[in-house]
């Protein structure tokens, strides 16, 4: 029989009509760099560990965190969280409380005794780490996980560096610090206490170390010339904090003046309050907005009764009193003396004017450059001397524990590559996930969980921790406030909003795929993607 | 993927406390599968499948798939769809192809409600109570040409869900005005010329309110911007028998002169400005309205649309503040009339709790001569 007349054709599916041919632009899934990851000095993949924490998978979250940072319970407490400053959620309601979740994960790990295994088989290489502060410990951890034998040599009686001798216990309880150090040592890192390295090249050759990582910190308080009477009580903030940490607190008297405007000044003033000072005054020669101390530190200090005296310098110290000179800011913002003086009663003057590194261990090492009191290193933390690397407070950069952890990690990566004779592989970072790429409509409003703070009266007299932690329910809440900027988190929106069914859902963890046979390139998926993980690209014709 | 061990309330769409996007996006890996939308399910019916000839970014194609997939889930696949003439029919069934993966009938432009009534009657005669009937049409087939048949279907309380996909003009035939076209909008028959450019103020009709006035069991409005809301309404509609009416706002990039990517965004703005009130009524009384979450001035909704281009200068500044003000007054009236801003303390409670009972006006007594409140 002949072909039927047209009107009797069998029904066919419109799937025969490949509407993808209409397209002039195509949607493409991308992964972008979240601002929190970009801002993290330790190079954490913040968004990724929050992703695990969002589903209550705290151990996988902690393991992801430990890939970059071996001290999460420490940094979760003392880090100034530039991640939160960068967080896009801050433009919506409030930044995600990343450091609070980090601390929660760190504390969970200590509570449950989670451990990481040394990842790589033994390399047969030996590395000396000088200093057991955050950058030394970080380097030791990452090198040990790469299979190297690591010896950490520490001059003090206990490990931790500034984490133990600089940061007061009310910000970082010592049992937390010790637990994280113990976990690193349990990987098989050798710790030698009370031993100082005096000659780096000699230590390498005499003891057969293949590489050295220097992380001795900046332990010397910077001095300023202040005319002082014989009986004036002047001491520097670092030694005050150190002896307090050693449980030999100095006698300060009832009225204590701290001279300086950095975080150490805040630590010293708050410690003085806890040691019994009824009056703790911070004297700073510029103004609040020019103070290098972190806002949170200043706020907490003020809340504890620390007073601030702006635009003043200490001109002279005598027994029981100080002479202050009033300053004014010139048009460039520099303080200039006015010639006006006033007296301030003070039983002790604590100098918190900055710190310097003791670089005597590098004497005679001619190919290591020192400039402005710090060791010069490249972005890979290498000095000019082959096999000698340096990081932490003894190199230039911001002097915080988290920066030091990042230095240690970076140095470990370089040392490992150097020992293996390879160049460290670093992929260029993907483009930044800025707020304007997000579709904030889809995010429900949810303000940040406020951590409980110790009763003000109590924290003025004890060294108990000031800021409380999250518990399981609010840690989950906080983690779920993450917007997942720039990276698909499988919300199904693209799959739902396509008018042409041209998105394939590949299943949990596998995300989605475009079916370009039918995608007409309307771009609704791009517009309606909450986290900005889809872009339109011109179709090549 | 582990399920969240939090203190989340048990599976219920009302009051899901999920602060990332579980409340507003189609789905989410952390959300109980029962709380995700039908559209988030890879096994969804895809009632209107790929290869259809709708324009890029077609709101009607989206609305039709959302609605029929939800009906398919609610009825376990036991449904038949009757389609009026219009874009939806033309782009989905050019001979001999069809995009429909559901039993589907088409007769004339104006008789879809009557055909649906007949299908329901035939099923009843065969004792098939399990198969449910849905009729669907654009605003032309509903508000103008099919209105007589539809009103009859309503007053006889025939067991049909009638869905109007409202894109506010006759798009298929070249963007002519319908009685659902809003004031000031340019169409081929209401040109942007003269002292009162575009569609005149004070004309047209509000079909949701007319349907409510028939005292039928269920009437609801929805947009393609809120999938959870639309699907919940379809589910409620399929849970009752008798005449039901669902009015879905579906932006049309071609007729509205908007970018194809903005389809969902414009539907969202229509609701968030108050121009398109999203509500539910049972037996002649409004029982719930969707609260405005982030209120926007009508300009934000009008500016991206070419059909309102004559209201703005080339740089986007208002050129006709009088006409924009007229549209703003319509939005303000809707907000007042339906209580679209009331109960503002529950904004962060997630999906569902933003829906609430209205302030108490009796809309059945309100003037029907007001498409989305004009007049």
Concise account of the structure shown:
The complex is a heterodimer of chains A (541) and B (375). Chain A is an alpha/beta fold and 541 residues long.
Describe this structure as you would to a colleague.
The complex is a heterodimer of chains A (541) and B (375). Chain A is of the alpha/beta class. Chain A folds into 4 domains: 18-31 and 488-538, Alpha-Beta Plaits (2-Layer Sandwich), CATH 3.30.70; 35-114 and 455-479, Fumarate Reductase Iron-sulfur Protein, Chain B, domain 2 (Orthogonal Bundle); 126-219 and 357-419, FAD/NAD(P)-binding domain (3-Layer(bba) Sandwich), CATH 3.50.50.60; 223-350, FAD/NAD(P)-binding domain (3-Layer(bba) Sandwich). Helix content of chain A is 29%, strand content 18%. Chain A has 18 helices and 22 strands. Chain A has helices at 35-39, 46-54, 58-66, 72-78, 82-86, 98-112, 134-145, 162-165, 174-185, 200-207, 237-245, 263-274, 295-303, 401-419, 456-459, 472-479, 493-497, 524-528, and strands at residues 12-13, 25-29, 126-130, 149-154, 190-193, 211-214, 220-221, 234-236, 255-259, 279-283, 307-309, 312-318, 321-329, 335-345, 348-351, 355-356, 370-371, 374-375, 388-390, 503-505, 512-514, 534-538. In chain A, strand 10 (279-283), helix 13 (295-303) and strand 11 form a beta-alpha-beta unit. The model of chain A has no long low-confidence stretch (mean pLDDT 91). With 375 residues, chain B is α/β, with parallel strands linked by helices. Chain B has one domain (33-373): Thiamin diphosphate (ThDP)-binding fold, Pyr/PP domains (Rossmann fold, 3-Layer(aba) Sandwich), CATH 3.40.50. Chain B has 11 helices and 10 strands. Chain B has helices spanning 59-75, 87-92, 112-125, 139-144, 147-155, 207-213, 227-238, 253-256, 263-273, 298-302, 321-338, and strands at 79-83, 97-98, 104-106, 132-138, 160-166, 218-223, 244-249, 279-282, 285-290, 355-356. A 9-stranded mixed beta sheet of chain B has the order 3-1-4-5-7-6-8-9-10, with helices on both faces. In chain B, helix 1 packs across helix 7 (227-238) and helix 3 packs parallel to helix 5 (147-155). In chain B, 57% of the residues are buried. Mean pLDDT of chain B is 88; it is low at 1-18, 344-356 and 358-375. At the A-B interface, strand 1, helix 16, helix 17 and helix 18 of A face helix 1, strand 2 and helix 9 of B.
